[in-house]
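Exercise 7.
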Amino acid sequence: QVQLVESGGGSVQAGGSLRLSCEAYGYIGSYFCMGWFRQAPGKEREGVASSYSGSTSTYYADFVKGRFTIAQDNAKNLYLQMNSLKPEDTAMYYCAAVFAVNCPVMTRSNYHYWGQGTQVTVSS
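Solution. The predicted structure, written as tokens, is:
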């Protein structure tokens, strides 16, 4: 069983930065994809970025490209550096993971392990 624990959320003004962290506990094999999702009130959960432990490949949703950077360390630690934050980035951010040979499309059903979420609030 895998457990994911997020940290690093908070409140910031527009234009500011935050760094989210996620640590995975339990058995982590070589084929492990980790990613960040977010969900704003009244909206669907959406994929933000993903990283695969077996390579340097990463994925970013269009709405964060150039502002957010995902990094994975030792296949167990995942980070999301968020710069130039906007009020529309306000959401609960979730760390998610799945055992796979490549990172799958970022839909909720494709990721099997989830953290409890960490709140990010960006004020204008």
